[in-house]
Amino acid sequence: MSNSSFYLPENLAPDDASPGWMNKADNAWQLTAATLVGMQSVPGLVILYGGAVKKKWAVNSAFMALYAFACVLVCWVLWGYRMSFGTERYIAFWGAPNVSLGENYLLQKAFLGKFPNATMVYFQFVFAAITLILIAGAVLGRMNFYAWMMFVPLWLTFSYTIGAFSIWCPDGWLSKLGLLDYSGGYVIHLSSGVAGYTAAFWVGPRLTRDRERFPPNNILLMLAGAGLLWMGWTGFNGGDPYVISTDASLAVLNTHVCTATSLITWLLLDRIFFGKTSVIGAVQGMITGLVCITPAAGIVQGWAAIIMGLCSGSIPWFTMMVVHKRSAMLQKVDDTMAVLHTHAVAGSLGGLLTGVFAEPKLNYLFYGYYAQYVGLFYGFDMGKVATGFRQIGIQLLGILFVVALNITTTSLICLFIRILVPLRMSEEDMEIGDEAAHGEEAYAIWGEGDGSENSRYDVELPVSTKNRAA
């Protein structure tokens, strides 16, 4: 018997830069998925918000999203990530703040997946950022930008980190109970919907004429932003197994199937009850589909994704088009982009339907435990009815926790900010919009550029160009 040695191909052999525990393919996909999610915000929601609002608010709305993206990243690496996913903690539902900047930490293996902490910090950052940007959708068209600058780091610190730790961190209490939230139906969408609606209550409404008539200034731009949001969801749900797997592929397909079904359902309801199919309605139906499938993407079968799409295209439509219009209480709060319906209602719906349709084998592929996570539908089939009802109970408990957390923390944050600066722009500034807030306008027709004379960044034209303009 001869001695023989086995050598890995040079591109697979571990070295100092590629340690043995790291999977190069998984790391590459995770970075790609994170970038897809980041592009949902910048430029996705920047473009969507900028196009979906009245012309005088285009710059302010887009800028609120851009600022939040940058601010969250700085806060995330300085303290937010370790508060959400750190192994050290002060209390049961909150990690201890700490920096995520040193190479000794960033190059270590992440708490899940076969890639370094640096990749996980980046991946989780883009989820945190989009949550704040979704909240902005509820207060567009009147929130004082300086109040928004304070709101972003405070809400990230005192609300998002608690929800993320409780639900996603392996040491979180809801995670240990067995709450199913595949990719953020609770942590991101239910949280942003409730927080946005609560913030809108404290900030107050837009001007009366803005509430009565608030047409998109550029529907094509809005659709471009919506397209980036939809396609970016491939990374949103496809990246959460933290591995290139069959489960990741299923999650991606389920995401798009549910979304398309939801969009079509919404359009059909618009056509039946209002006589016309609305582009804005199509975007709303798209968003509710994306939100609804998010907590379930990789743990339900394709037929369940269709059912969830039918529900997400009809139930939020009903709450928005019927319940909201008949409820004096709901109409008191000016929720600009209807995040209560598109994110809170759709996120809760997705969470509950996840508890119904979660398939044990798929749960095993994702969580690594068989017969521990059983949807109610399969509980009847497997003779584990009590386990199925327990899962529904946990899903409901998660909804109650997220709602209570965000109403409380968002209210306290808004009340605190109100002591320092006004939450709402003045009536005079709201009449003007972007020019009053930033000294800039979205669309300056040649000869009307004087509207930006208050900007410090006006570009001086060359002499020859000035002569031609004259």
Automatic annotation (TrEMBL):
Query: Which Gene Ontology terms describe the biological processes this protein takes part in?
Result: ammonium transmembrane transport
Q: Where are the transmembrane segments?
A: 28-50, 57-79, 121-140, 147-168, 188-207, 219-236, 278-297, 303-324, 336-358, 364-380, 392-421
Keyword Membrane part of the UniProt annotation: yes
Record has Hydrolase as a keyword: no
Membrane-topology annotation of the record:
Multi-pass membrane protein
Q: Which domain of life is it from?
A: Eukaryota
The UniProt entry lists the main location of this chain as membrane
Gene Ontology CC annotation, any one? plasma membrane
Q: Which NCBIfam families match?
A: amt
Put simply, this protein is called Ammonium transporter
Please give the organism.
Answer: Citrus sinensis (Sweet orange)
